[in-house]
């Protein structure tokens, strides 16, 4: 079934335009951002791993933004009963949701939660044993982060307020850098929007739940199947949360069921860990995908396991130089696949993109037979990229290294966004051969200057395989939902830009306030704090043991790109070809270890429904699968929010 056929009736474009870009919607959106940012900080920095929490920002539909939307819907319904005209319309609700989703993810892991500890790490963790002071302190600009060790101790120990003096300068430069990066991705999203949304009509599975629960007709909330779908994950989560607080209550184990022990003898044990997990929200989203995508996702994951077994049979398991550069080179193949997917996506839209750039730069005149994309987006891409380059040069980097790093990061980001648009990938992990790793290993750390390597450590979070909280996938979702709800794209772009400009500093200073209160290494979540230290541990390795270029790994990056290109060609030439290249691209990523089984379940159920009930039964079943998503996230958001106010309450996480 095609992407268009997976759409619920209430997600069809409206013929009338309800006003969306209103002052009250913007105001509620900014208030929602503030509330969700502090929910993210308290849940993830205070509750953390010790008491459990549902991650508020790292899934394809961010739980924090979704929880805020549910709360707003409840109050909106009450307002409607008092006075109809006070009620927010469905377009305003979507604007509020997209503003919140686009901006608040940057507050979490992979962004603020990793980056701020990295600013404090190089001086606090320096010791005689690691010799950081002599290794790289001389390459750190004074303005890039705080250096006062006595005041930094407050950050790690807690029990104090934020010393504004040492954080004001770094907060300005880093909030500006994050904003430029997010603005660059927003501009790229605007440029590819027409090709992906209108021409190719990609699935965008993560837009349908927000669209359906905010629909003016309220049909979702009156559907019995929807409530059954909501009840199942909500009751499972409630039972397991009760178990964490009252151990005499039984737990229903539905995740991380290890079956790899069944394969403990050679060569089967070479496949590594194999777990079964039932994530209801993943099943619900996967049900919306085309059958070829769901099939490809679990098929290629199991194919990577088969590769390992075949490697053991033929004595190839130890082929390579160790670590990630080892047969079957899954991470290198994944890196090649990500690069190829981005290249293919841009190649498909090359004529329209090329013409837009040419017209914007005054190199050609607009032709009536060609669609000209938003010219502002061209200038924003160029200006934001130039701004990031100026930052890197001011920090002491050479010209070529930051240019390569930023381009590779954006290439991976485009690929990740494309994959999200086609798979609804619950956790957006890329291959561990990420932009920074592929750059360092391809050139060899011994061929990169220590000053470049040092500043690259600070930029690690912008060039990481962990893309769960990046903004661009939500930006494309926003443009897709704007098409459905007839929200003016110009107004939407302005609202999203305002949300980023407001949300980033709120997230930065909010995190500082929490860390200085509880202590980043005292009562806070130490894993996130030590992620900031880890980039300098890696830098220490690069400087103390410089490595030559990893040519073997680079070969398998090329193999991954070639396989992806072949899969794309076969898919375009043969209508019945069952394998989709995005399934191959994510097969070896961390997310598929948890998602492969839910994808298999969704593919099986959808195949059976379409075969024996046809498209009509499939459409009738949609509310149930929407309900699985709503119930799972409603459970996670509700109990995590409650735990923020009840000390010692433990929470069963629904998404990790």
The N- to C-terminal Cα distance equals 30 Å
Tally of DSSP β-strands:
4
The secondary-structure element order is: HHHHHHHHHEEHHEEHHHHHHHHHHHHH
Strand percent estimate: under 5%
Q: Which regions contain 5 or more consecutive residues with pLDDT less than 50? A: 1-15
Taken together, the total number of domains comes to 1
Strand order of the largest sheet: 1-2
| Radius of gyration from the alpha-carbon trace, in angstroms | 24 Å
- The shape is globular
Residue share in helix: 55-70%
Helix count equals 24
By helix and strand content, what is the structural category? mainly alpha
Main β sheet profile: 2 strands, antiparallel
Mean pLDDT: 92
In short:
65% of the residues lie in helices and 1% in strands.
Give the topology, please.
Blueprint: H1 23-51, H2 63-82, H3 90-104, H4 112-124, H5 132-135, H6 149-157, H7 164-199, H8 208-213, H9 224-245, E1 257-258, E2 275-276, H10 280-286, H11 291-313, E3 320-322, E4 325-326, H12 330-348, H13 350-360, H14 375-394, H15 400-423, H16 435-443, H17 450-458, H18 472-485, H19 489-523, H20 526-544, H21 551-573, H22 581-586, H23 592-612, H24 614-643
Helix pairs in contact: 1-2, 1-3, 1-19, 2-3, 2-24, 3-18, 3-19, 4-19, 4-20, 6-19, 7-14, 7-18, 7-19, 9-24, 10-23, 10-24, 11-23, 12-15, 12-21, 13-14, 15-18, 17-20, 23-24
Task: Jot down its keywords.
two-stranded antiparallel ribbon; single chain; 24 helices
